[in-house]
Amino acid sequence: SSYGRSTVQLMKFILDYLRAKKKLDRTTLVVHNDLPNNEWTRLFQLLNTDSSYFAVASGRSFYEPCLPMKSLTLGYSAASLHHLSRKPCVI
Predict the structure, then answer these.
(1) CA–CA separation, 7 vs 9, rounded Å?
(2) Is this model's pTM higher than 0.90 or not?
(3) pLDDT of residue 90
């Protein structure tokens, strides 16, 4: 999620598209995941000013799972793959 602005805008775009296509007809929970030492304040400020979706933050490395098995409906990752030292956890 980094500082959140691009991530929040992208999540809103994806959710609006799914709603317009009638592919999403229920409340949505978005899990923003980034390293525990990320500057989370900016993301929380953005989420507090917009109520277009419900969100939580998970401070975990993407080298390990951040959700229980079989609990994910749609996954999106904007990881900078060229910076990774090994293959991340499969979503």
Answers:
(1) 5
(2) no
(3) 67
